[in-house]
Amino acid sequence: MLAKSRSDLPEGDGWLFEPKWDGFRALIFRDGSELLIQSRDEKPLNRYFPELELPLKTQLPERCVVDGEIVIAQGGALDFEALQLRLHPAASRVKMLAGQLPASVVLWDLLCVGERSLLSTPFQARRGLLEAHLAHATAPLYVTPATTDREVAADWFRRFEGAGLDGVMAKQAAGLYEPNKRAMFKVKHERDCDCVVAGFRWHKDGVGTAVGSLLLGLHDAEGVLHHVGVAASFTMPRRRELVELLAPYRMSAGDARATHPWASWADLSGDQGEPGEHQRKPGAKSRWSQGKDLSWEPLRPELVVEVAYDHMQGARFRHTAQFRRWRTDKPPAACTYAQLEVVPPEELATIFAART
After folding, report:
1. pLDDT(342) > 50
2. Per the residue annotation, which of 20, 171, 281, 285 is the catalytic one?
C-alpha cells in the first residue's frame, strides 16, 4: 500500500498517526523455517541483512506477512547512508557491516496470520493483532508507535526529525489494506535553501536538448563548495528552456579541470568509483544507480537557485530538492550550510517508548 503527500496532518476523528521511518520499506513473509524479506519493488533483501533472519524467524508468528521498514540507527539517529552500504555484491562485505552496525525492523502492519488474510480487516484491528503477536518482541524487532491524538502526532513531527524520521504517516483506522493504492497520507518537512548551481545532467530522453537535473552546491565554513543534491522536477518545456538559460555558463572539460570547484572530480563521464568520505561526487555511482548514465556537465558556479528540501542526511539533501525560483539578487558565496536549520537529535529510545 502506498501513500499520498500532503502538507498538514488531517483533522477529525478516525485517524491513526505514526512516525515516518527513513529506511528500506519491506514486506516480510514467514512460513515456518522459510523467510522472505521483500523490497518495495519485489526484490529479495535477505542476503543484505543476514542478522535479521534469526530474530524474524523466532519472534514473528509461525505463518504471517508483515509490513514495515528496515532501519539502521547509530548515535541516537537513523543512518540511511549506512543502510545503502548494505546493497553490496560481496557477501563478506555485507557480513562485516552486519556485525559492525546491525539493522533493525520497525513493523506497523500485519497482513496475514496463519491461514487468515487480513487485507479486508480494518487497520485498527490489524494494528491490535500486530501488537498482540509482538507484545514480547525484543530488539532488533519493534512495533512503531501509533496515536489517535493529532497533537501528539504534531509533537512527533516537530521533535523527531533530528533522529532521522522524516515526517508522520496518517492512516484511516477503518481503512482496509489496498495494495498498490495510495490509501494513506505522508506529511513531510519542507524548508527553503539557496544553492549554487555548479552543473547539470541531460534528460535521458533529451540529451543535448533537455536538462534532466541541476547539480546543487553549498559552501562550508572554509569556502569549499560541496555537492549537496539535485533539483529535477521540471516539465519538458521547462527542461528545453533550461538548455538555453544555462548555455552561457557551460564550461569546456579543459576549463573545468583548471578552475571548476569540483575539478578534482575531473572525469565527467560519471565513472568515478566510490563516493568520497565527506560528500558524494556528482557523477559517482551509488548502489541505486543500476547502470544509469550519471555523467554531468560543469557550469561556472555563478547561478543561485532557491529550492525546497525536506531534511538533510549528513551533509546532503536526503531527497531530490524542488526548484522554486532563481535568486539573481544573491551572490554564490552566500550559499552556505549556515542557512540550514539544524534539528537536534531526539533519542530513538524516546520514540520507541511513546505509547498513546
Report:
1. yes
2. 20
